[in-house]
Amino acid sequence: MEPIEIAELIKGKFGSEVKGVVEFRGQISITVKKERILEIMSYLHKTPELYFDYLADLCGVDYMGKKEIRFEVVYHLLSIKYNKMIRIKAEVPEDDCSIDSVIGIWAGADWHERECYDMFGISFTGHPDLRRILMPEDWDGYPLRKDYPLKSDLGEKEWKPFKQVIEIGKKNLVYEVR
Amino acid sequence: MAVIRDLKTKTLTINMGPQHPATHGVLRLVIELDGETVVKCKPYVGYLHRGTEKLGENRTYPMALPLSDRLDYVSSMSNNIGFCVAVEKLLGIEVPERAKYIRTIMGELTRIANHIVWIATHALDIGAMTVFLYSMRDREWILELYEMACGARLTVTYPRIGGVRADVDQEFLDHCYKFTEEFPKRILQYETLIDQNRIWLQRTKGIGVLTAEEAINWGLSGPTLRGSGVPYDIRKFAPYDAYDKVEFEVPVGKAGDVYDRYRCRMEEFRQSNSIIRQCLEKLPGGYVLAADAPGYDLATGPRKKPAPPPPKTEPAADGSPPTPPPPPEEPGPAFEDVYVATEVPKGELGFYFISDGTGKPYRMRIRAPSYVHASVLPKMCEGSLVADIIANIGTIDIVLGECDR
Amino acid sequence: MNINEVIGLEQTSFLFQLLIIIVKIAVVIGITMLHVAYATYFERKVIGHMQVRLGPMRVGPHGLLQPIADGVKLFFKEDIIPVAADRTVFQIAPYVAVFATLSSLAVIPFFDIFYIANINVGLLYLFAMSSLGGYSLIMSGWASNSKYAFLGGLRSTAQIISYEIAMAFSLVSIMLMAGSMNLIEIVQAQQQYWYGMYLIPQFVAYIVFMIAAFAETNRTPFDLPEAESELVAGYFVEYSGMRFALFFLGEYIGMIVMSSLAVVCFWGGWTAPPILIKLIPPLAMVPGIIWFILKVYFHIFLFYWVRATLPRYRYDKLMSLGWKILIPVALANLVITSILKFIF
Known about the structure:
The complex is a heterotrimer of chains A (178), B (405) and C (344).
Chain A: H1 3-13, E1 18-24, E2 27-33, H2 37-46, E3 54-62, E4 71-79, E5 84-92, E6 98-100, H3 109-120, E7 123-125, H4 160-172
Chain B: H1 2-6, E1 12-16, E2 28-34, E3 37-44, H2 52-57, H3 61-69, H4 76-91, H5 97-126, H6 129-150, E4 159-160, E5 163-164, H7 170-194, H8 198-204, H9 212-217, H10 222-226, H11 234-237, H12 258-282, E6 336-344, E7 347-355, E8 361-367, H13 369-375, H14 377-381, H15 386-396, H16 400-404
Antiparallel strand pairs in B: 1-2, 2-3, 4-5, 6-7, 7-8
Chain C: H1 3-6, H2 14-50, H3 66-76, H4 87-104, H5 122-143, H6 147-178, H7 183-190, H8 203-216, H9 228-231, H10 241-266, H11 274-279, H12 288-309, H13 315-343
Helix pairs in contact in C: 2-3, 2-10, 2-12, 3-10, 4-5, 4-10, 5-6, 6-7, 6-8, 6-13, 8-10, 8-13, 10-12
């Protein structure tokens, strides 16, 4: 089954959920609402003639100010059996920044969802261990959001906690500070 | 055994890494041990996080290319190729035939170089020291070939968007050919040392078993997946470069244990060698860089759709007629996106680009195989012994630079 | 025949005899230390050449002064004791390691007239000392108050206990053959055969002994207590400077002791096979110490060779090898030896 037919199939089955189908360079993107994402995903995974058993990638995208709904979670699904790839984009609004976790369908989604949470602050309902993964646990902000600065506003100055470390060191006289 | 059950025992929590000789970088595992048995294993990553994705979004495509070297620094050439293939697909650039072949040669050389590092460290972790030095000797050869082609040894940035940076000369081709003639003998040397070694077999057979379904479900890729018997190889599934013009087999394992993954990679040595050989024999002439390959000034103007002439925003200061103001911005750029995966030595390296029409990617997402592979560690390790953790870390072939990005 | 008889000092005073013994101890320790220093050098060279590289080349011609440089470096390194460590035990442990192995040298007959002590329970004494060596690993593993060291210590406890048994059983067959536990008598008893060594009738025991010896000295493939890639350095992970070096000293002396024991019990000690002497009479002129040293060197080379070749065992496989294979084999060998001994 060609990807475009798959898109039609989903459109037929989850008509109200599908917001658009785009083809670019032979790759099909299906934009869906986030509410029934779990159903769509398990349909794609379970249906014998689709059988998207491989979650190639899961990532978030921030369309701040560019699109009506700020975030998108992008799933790249692959069917190893049929060698077909499809892209599902689930729209996640900023004020309700959560989406159902697909970890029950693809175990490999675990760290991808944690990273998406870490980088965009999108929380995944049903994820058993949603923590920051790449950034330190006490990090403020979500680095891959478009409003997160590339450089810190400190410019060339030291990272703030660094000064605190120095202060603590001075206080405890653990070591000489230049 | 009732007596033993009544004993009050406690588990021992051990922190393995980020500084540990066998964690291949800065992977940190918090392990809960009951005697020598692993009860729980929790990997922590991110110690090498450099924000590559964020950096990529703030650079033009050609400028972001060197970032990809720093992902998996033992196979930087493959990362470059992965990046270039993805951007070429996004921009619709047709790569000259010769460049495709050169890239294939480089990609396969990198695969050999990566697997050499893998076999070296994996064997060293398990305790076979000699394999390490035998294989490092041969890696040196490949690095010299890199040096011959592009002057760099580690972070090469030799493939460019639209081709490769420079053509290879006859000297390179001769040396490369000599390498392909000699290398199969070297593979035999590694195999002599460990292939039939009883201790090696005991340490690798039946360890870290993943069934085909599990491996797919966890999103594993590359030889780690193929060891479980899934013949998923992007070079066959979605050929890029010159992979559709060469003949090779995809070695798959059966049992899905450490030994089968080891065998898969050893076979890949041979397959890669044969691919290089075929490419060298078929190498066509011609240019090595597409005419429409983007330059570094990409960011200054709109990337594509030359139909509306590029607005001359800077009027000449000599009193020429005032240029019309730039056309009002379109309501929103049409976002175009491609996800292109390439088969790097470690598995599926996917680049997902979203373009908003400028020279900078709106979103650059890197799907790193090491990241996915590291996430499967708890599944492989829990219930096994401490020594098996080491074998498991080795077998999934991770590089933390790529994992943490 | 003792060296005392040779130089005619049988009737001299106790003090003079003591002096003689002290001189002998000094000679043995001196030579052993020199051997240890150059054993490290040759280990690096031999393994280096096996691994298509050169080994140490910088200090002195062909790196010959490397052991001295290493020694100097280790002596002058800071001796760090972790705050949480049990200081006393932590400090004692490396000395126990060296003491145990050095004391073993006392009963090794280097050649027919040179040994420190000639005791009738030589083999038992050696067993005792090699068990004592295990304590140092346990002590250091425990006292370091580090989890890695602790695991290493536990592994070594289990390993040394298991392999001691196999080793003892393999040597009991030798005792039966020789009818003595005195090492000198064991060597002399081997001369009754034309091939002049127990290696041939007790080949099985020799194999078991050598495997156990590798385990006793914590050498590859049984270096689990220090498993570099798993436990970083195992029981001595917290040690530094001289105390760290002492563990290595203990390991290398242990290697020399085990090689000497193998030579004495299986390879006819300082004697050459009578058949060889008969075929090539000039060989009788070769002093015993040369034979002894050559045989020991061969065994030490064996240690290196194995290290360059084999991966490391896993803990449970090590245990099953020790208990399920080596001990039954050694026992069976013992039973067969006793039956044959009873018949003939």
